[in-house]
Each structure stands twice: as C-alpha cells, then as structure tokens.
What does this fold into?
Amino acid sequence: MSDMTDGNMTARNTPTEQTDSPAPGSAVVMLLGAGERSRELALAFQRLGAQVIAVDRYAEAPAHAVADRAAVIRMTDAEALTELIDAEKPDYVVADAVAVATDALITIAERGGAEVFPTPRSTRLSLDGEGLRRLAADELGLPTCPFWFAGSAAELTAIAEHAGFPLVVKPVAAAPGEGESVLRTAEDVEAGWRRAVAGGRLSLQRVMAETVVEVDAEVTLLTVRTTGPAGPVVHFCEPIGHRQCDGGTLESWQPQQLSPAALDAAKSIAARIVNSMGGRGVFSVELLVCGDEVYFADVRPRPHDSGLVTLRSQRLSEFELHARAILGLPVDTIMISPGAAQVSYVSESAPESAPESAAGSVASGSLHADDVRMRGVLADALAVAESDVRLFSRSDAPGGRGWSALSLATAPDPIVARDRARRVATALRRLR
It folds into this structure.
C-alpha cells in the first residue's frame, strides 16, 4: 500500500476485501476511526451500497484496507478534521473513536450538509463520565449505584472516609476495566488514585468512585434508535451478559436470562438514556442487575466489544444494525441462536507467523503456507462445534505491534455456548 501522511487521501483497491463497486449516487460515509471494529462497520456500510472514507491518526489501519478511500489526520485537530470533511463532502460523518474533535463535529452538525453520528451531545457525554452519570441520576432519575467524583487523592480520601469500603475507583473517561481498581482499606486510596488517573483515555485528573454492590449479572443491552413516520423508535437486542476475566479477557454471552421485571426495567432505563442522547444507531447500554433491581452503569453511542457475540448470535450483527439505523433503513434484532464470545489480548509482540492483517487472512483462508504451528492451533480451535475465530492485528499494542483473538461459538443454550467459546480461547492461547 502507498505511504500516507497527515491529510493525504488514498484510494483502495483490495479485491479480496472490497465489496462490489457502489452504485452511482450512493451515500458517502466518512468513518472517523479505522480500527478492527471500524473495519467491520465499514464493510456493513459497503454491503448497503455506501462509499466509505476511513479516517484515522495512523496509516495502514485495518479499515483503510477495505474502505473506498482512506485518510490519515489527527482527528483531535478540529481544523484538519473540518478541512477534510469540507473537501470530501460526505453525507454522513460517523465517529467510531473516542478521541475526535467534538467542537468540529458540533460545527458540522449545526451548519447542515452532513448528518453527524453519534450526535455531538452523545460524543461529548461519552468523553465525560461525570456529565453522563449526572444526566442519568440527576436529570433522568435513573437508578445508579451511589457515586462521587474526586479531583485529587485528598478528595478521594475524604470520599472513602464518608462512604466506607469497598469502593470501585475508575477514570471518568475510559474503556471498561481500564484504570479501575477496588479500594478495600485507606492504604489503597493513593494507589487507586494513581491507577485511575494514569489509565484513562484522556488526562482529566478526575475519577469516579462507586459503592460496591452485589449483582447477579453485568449486562449490555444493545439498543437501536431509529426514526419512523411517527418519530423516534427504539429496538432492543436480547440482553448480553459479560464479565472481565483475568488477563484482560472479556467474556460475553447472549441471551442473559433476566426476570420479566428486570427486563422491563432494563428496557425502560435504556430507552430513557438513549432518547436523551438522540440520533440514530446502536447504543451499548451497560447495566447492573440484582434480582429484579436494575442499575444504570454506562452507555456508549456505538457498537462495543461485549456486543461482538452478535456476529454469530443474531441475524444482523451490532455493526449491521448500526449501519442500517444511520442510513435510515429498517432494522430487526432477531437472535438466531444463543452464542458466546471471548476477546483475548494474545501477545505484546505478534509471532512471526501472524499475518499483517490476521482477520482478513483467517477469513480468506490464505494463511502462510509454512505456518504449520498456526494451522495446527486454528485446526484445534475450529474443531469445537459451531465455533469461529477472528485474529486482529493491533498497532496500538505495547511496543507498537500485537494482536487480539476473538473466539465465537453458538449452541442450543448459552451455557454450552460459553463452554465452547472457552475451549476455542484455550486453544488459541497456544499462539502466545
């Protein structure tokens, strides 16, 4: 592929990845973020006839390989982002990354010409955990765990003395589990503060502390917001249970069984927060469930890792639902089979046998001819009934190169699906 510098546009021609040529007059979607999840989203848009411009801060990002055109800019640079949008004139601007110049998106949305998703309000709230939690608890009256915010270790110490232990402490803007710790004694406060401040995606020097509550399940309720003749409509996928395992592995399964009362409460909470944020698309609403009680935890206005199970469990994956909703097309949230997934970070440095674009190589079957070891591992993993594997290269890994593994499985019930996904993930660990 050609080298790219900041602001350069590059046309792509990758026959094994590209969909058919877009129809004349097709929608143009500018995708801000070109990682592995964005790659799936780009393909979902292209399958619906859209042209995709994939944008990221670094060259050779995964979605660049499948997009119709690619650009490399600093997406936090409002001027550069505005210039790119003005030059390309997309019909839709879709932010699929956290670090984006929100002010530029607000300006683009207000002046018209391109629809911006998520809405600038949603994008801003996704970066402002404090604002989001206050919206949910204070303005919307959603049930949440008791929470406080601190701007220093001293403030966190005062909160701990007031609230007692244990306390969960995390950055106000971070991925699930990132920078998070549990404070059990006063001696843990300083270390918890440092971990949260260092682990956030943005250096906000501000953390959130929550009372630890006993829960039966942590749930993602994928909520799809669309618009119809009568106005906004929300659709719900079957609840997805998930848990963070040792070593950073995320396990998820669908469906997570909830009582009728808990399911009704979950849908009510999700609808209220999503309608408050506005726009169209998939919202990943994070909930804590204890019996019939449901607490709001977080919401992300885009597909999320816990929803990767939908690649096999639903007729339309979270990426296809997001693309359809944004383009104003009909959606359905039919689950075709119980399923489970595990996302595992495999290694800080990819083995020599790992393909540069492992996801595409696994999909196409074009693994290196001499890679006997990888073939053997994949053969063992895929020998598990109703299983599937995705290997993702990661340029953001420590040392600049690494990869992640996605293990997928379906079964007649989620318990069996989880067991199968675990067996697939265990086989893939031999690639370390």
